[in-house]
Amino acid sequence: MPRMIFFWCQASHGNLQASFSKILQNFNNMAESYYKQGIQKTLDRAEQSSGAERSVFQVAAHVCLNTPVWRLPDLWSISGLFIEAVDGDSIWHFACVCPSVSNAFMKFLSDHMDRIIGVLVCDPVSFISILGWLRC
Fold this sequence. Notes:
mainly alpha; globular
């Protein structure tokens, strides 16, 4: 939370006359950049771990597809990017801590499409979902 307050101060610093939407846009850009670094770090760690890469990339795909994440691999649970959430039917799942995390995942996916699809080819359900998402 203190980092987000800092980002908000940075977004409005230097131009106190800026519109709220401009400040919000600057804040979102800083927050997404920060979370994108966390995503990159987690995926890099997954590539170095034996057997963790596929499950870590699957979570990234589910976030981008806006589908529930039922189980978090250890690398994601320590990342600070997810919280436990409950939907209207009292079903627990994991969700991004804020919209900036979801946006960072989307930007990461668009920047690293080949890397993620290469890992997910082994998981037909996620792979077919990604292909459907790409057609939109």
